[in-house]
Write a structure and sequence with these properties.
single chain, 310 residues, mainly alpha, 2 domains, two-stranded antiparallel sheet, two-stranded parallel sheet, 4 strands, 53% helix, globular
């Protein structure tokens, strides 16, 4: 802008304070990004909006999806244009990663793990643009399931089988431990849920009278333990355990266990962030058999996955 244009802009916006300037710049940033997106889809399709005379493609605009962009002016809501054939991929704001690579979406510090804490985490993810989650693999963290159901009601929840085993064998005498862990395997290794329930029934007949609390734990958590049985081996391998996040947490603990305390939460976050960047640099490989997994997911969750497949 020229000086005269800036003066006119200040007058139009009635700016009288730094906060007014920040607010005006935020609006300008949002409008600029929006216009760039509109220009991108116009270039991609080859015709302007409503200009049907010059349309030379079978593809067309197909509404918008909402996205929140973080900027130095604060969080800005924009509308990302979509096309009917799913070919449009904006350069100014990158769409959804379906390439099968692992990622860390955020780091949070909390004094305790409650439903309220997890709801805060999930709401923040949602505000940042995570519109849907197909399957969430969780351990037995208190309040996590309730928070997921409140924020993402369509999400399937898979409780970590390894955590379930650890939690249930705390009721077991050491002398029975090896035998019980061996006899639990046919339950979670079963080919179908029905076969798994039959194995659980046999397990209960053998051990239920001696360890009723252990069997009750499996029964009470069964709905979320058994989620993975309906999926093929490739997807089961990804969701039946939280080993990926546990491995990541071990990397974080390596650099924090020697510290008695941190002066502030920000100091801790900075250290965790640097470790995370190092971890992400090593996560270069794709999830094994990702192509087959994506095809399976597009069938299981047809309306929720296929619109985003390029």
């Amino acid at each position: 802008m020229s000086k005269e244009q800036i003066k006119q802009w200040i007058k139009e916006k009635n700016m009288k304070s730094v906060d007014d300037v920040q607010s005006a710049l935020k609006d300008l940033f949002a409008d600029t990004i929006q216009e760039m997106l509109e220009a991108e889809i116009e270039s991609s399709l080859g015709y302007a909006k409503h200009d049907m005379k010059n349309k030379r493609t079978t593809n067309s605009r197909n509404g918008y999806s909402k996205k929140t962009v973080r900027s130095e002016y604060g969080d800005v809501d924009i509308q990302v244009p979509r096309d009917r054939e799913g070919d449009f991929e904006p350069n100014i704001v990158n769409g959804i990663d379906l390439d099968g690579h692992k990622d860390v979406l955020g780091i949070w510090i909390g004094e305790n793990e409650s439903a309220k804490f997890w709801l805060h985490v999930l709401n923040e993810l949602r505000n940042r643009g995570v519109q849907d989650i197909l399957i969430t693999s969780v351990d037995n963290l208190r309040g996590f399931t309730e928070a997921i159901s409140a924020c993402y009601p369509k999400t399937e929840i898979q409780k970590c089988v390894i955590h379930q085993i650890r939690n249930s064998i705390k009721y077991v005498s050491y002398k029975d431990l090896k035998k019980i862990t061996s006899e639990l395997k046919p339950i979670y290794k079963a080919p179908t849920e029905q076969a798994a329930l039959e194995e659980l029934e046999q397990f209960e007949q053998a051990w239920g009278s001696k360890y009723p609390l252990m069997v009750r734990s499996w029964r009470n958590n069964w709905d979320e333990i058994a989620t993975f049985f309906k999926y093929p081996p490739e997807i089961r391998k990804l969701i039946y355990t939280t080993n990926v996040i546990e491995s990541y947490h071990r990397q974080l603990r390596k650099v924090t266990k020697g510290k008695a305390m941190f002066p502030t939460d920000d100091a801790l976050l900075k250290m965790l962030y640097l470790v995370t960047m190092d971890v992400l640099r090593k996560w270069t490989g794709r999830v094994q058999n990702w192509g087959q997994i994506l095809l399976q997911l597009s069938v299981f969750f047809e309306d929720r996955v296929q619109p985003y497949i390029r």
